[in-house]
Design goal:
Layout lengths: L1 E6 L6 H16 L4 E6 L18 H12 L2 E7 L7 H9 L9 E8 L6 H13 L3 E2 L4 E4 L12 H25 L3
Parallel strand pairs: 1-2, 1-3, 3-4, 4-5, 4-6
Length: about 180
Amino acid sequence: MKLLGISGTLMGTKTLTLVSGVVDRAARLNPALQTEVMDLRNYALELCDGRDRAHYNESTQQAIEKIIAADCYVIGTPIFQASLSGALKNLFDLLPATAFRGKVVGFVGTGGTYQHFLVIENQLKPIAGYFKAYTAPDYVYAHRDHFNGQNEISDLDVLKRMDSLAAQIVHMSGALTSVSQGV
């Protein structure tokens, strides 16, 4: 089983820190889990314009294939203007509707106000529903105050929520794999 973390931003490190932290915790819970973190800053994604996937640049095609090949996900975004990042929205637009179908998705977000956690509930979870993904019940939202000067998570409650989300992703994905294999 492969867990792919996606840091859905082109700037900063807080979202990547949060995504990587949940992925690392999941790997400790299930050492057989293959993990990878996709940092969108490392991809030259083209803007989605509806053309066939084969007509996008190689970097865009690699990102799409990496997502399709994974079995479960931790997807993170900074919250800008009470919404997910444009980079992450563009990535979702590039994907086929079947990319997350029947797979587990856990969400994390970072932001500058304490109300921005609502973006996960009101925007990201409905997007997962469109893709017919199984969404982990918990999510993690971290305010900039939850990070220290080195952009490391310093809030104990956030760290506990990261543990909980990792456990849910591992448990749900394992259960779905067992069912699909008839175990």
